Prior knowledge:
Elements: H1 12-52, H2 64-71, H3 77-108, E1 111-114, E2 117-123, H4 134-144, H5 151-165, H6 173-179, H7 182-185, H8 204-230, H9 232-236, H10 238-247, E3 251-255
Antiparallel strand pairs: 1-2, 2-3
Amino acid sequence: xxxxxxxxxxxxxxxxxxxxxxxxxxxxxLSSQWSDKAYQQTWNEAEESFAARLDPDRHYGDEHLDIxxxxxxxxxxxxxxxxxxxxxxxxxxxxxxxxxxxxLQEALGSSLTMDGKKHTIKLASPPKFESPGWxxxxxxxxxxxxxxxxxxxxxxxxxxxxxxxxxxxxxSEDALARFRDLDAERGQGETDRAHTGGKxxxxxxxxxxxxxxxxxxxxxxxxxxxxxxxxxxxRERWSEVMTELYIQKxxxxxxx
Length: 256
């Protein structure tokens, strides 16, 4: 028996992640569908409200814009879409990291017996934290057989940091060069292009591309993680892998 996503021969951690990934993609799609309808309805109501009281002698003719803006509390459609897309990126990157941790813990198991005594196995974590640091996750998965710190993953994690700690603001030319989407900007006017001081451009196609790149790494990582726990060949490597993880300070073994 080998790892096979189609037949469900995957780790429990993979199943958890896949459900989260499905929710993220549905949230992105449904939010767009529902918000488009709701915004159009609100726009129509604003036009109808203004038309009912239009006085050519007192009005300029575009006061329905103010009515619409008041109705949506200033949250215009492009801002709504950006907030939705940013939340999906942040959730997806976090789910990626959670998968890496849960897959490792599943592969290792929770206990072992040495010299007739039972011991617990835990992933090493910084003081006062329950989860391991990023470098521990990277090192541990490399020992299992997968490089999870790819260029795409590094970029996605940096984008998550930008979205979380700077609300997506491109504060420097370096940030602009790193995070702008030149393909998406082709054909756009100067005012619509990414610029220093503005927010990082997202858009559903770009978000889906990020989700796909994270998914590709998870699928590579899950085969050796699953094998370590569920296949005879993987279990034969368990002691060797445990030893290397201990040497690299990725795990902590404590007596019960």
